[in-house]
Amino acid sequence: MQELFHYPLIGAILYRLQMIRVDTCGGGRERTNLAQFAKRAYDSGRPIAIYPEGNLMAPGERERYRSGIFYLYRDLDLPVVPVATSIGLLWNRRDWRKKAGRAAVEFLPAIETGLDKHAFMRRLEETIEAASDRLIAECSGRPYTPSQLVLRSQGQNGIGQPINAPREAL
Predict the structure, then answer these.
(1) Tens of pLDDT along 65-116?
(2) Which helix H or strand E contains 31, and what residues bound it?
(3) Residue 168 contacts by C-beta under 8 Å, 6 or more apart in sequence?
(4) Model's pTM, two decimal places?
(5) In this structure, are 36 and 81 located in the same domain?
């Protein structure tokens, strides 16, 4: 969400809070920068919070989880506490208007250290998505439905278009 740093008031607050900017298109160079900044944050006792999808998704949608969180998990040898939310019901990431209403945030059991990349990423995604889908159903009063994977990186044509593949294949 490095674009948030460009907004006058929000950017100044984020700089002051020493938030870590991440260029999700930066590849290996950005992974090195992220590791250095995250190590500094950890050493100074600050918590590290990450959206593994890279941004807030609309209810019922999910995106490919980015692997940067795995490298922090591995390199810092820290457990990861997944967090589920229903905030997308009230806050559309593409709209400045916010709705009043009820939203929930749930801190889930920590994922212990030592898992390989595939096992960690699968567990993280399954844990967060199942809990978020449940919270969305509870807060919206709608029946529980699993979120659908969408392609954000395919340009405007891919947004909102579900991929018809089971989670196991991803």
Answers:
(1) 888 889 889 988 989 999 998 888 887 766 777 778 888 899 999 999 999 9
(2) helix 27-43
(3) none
(4) 0.73
(5) no
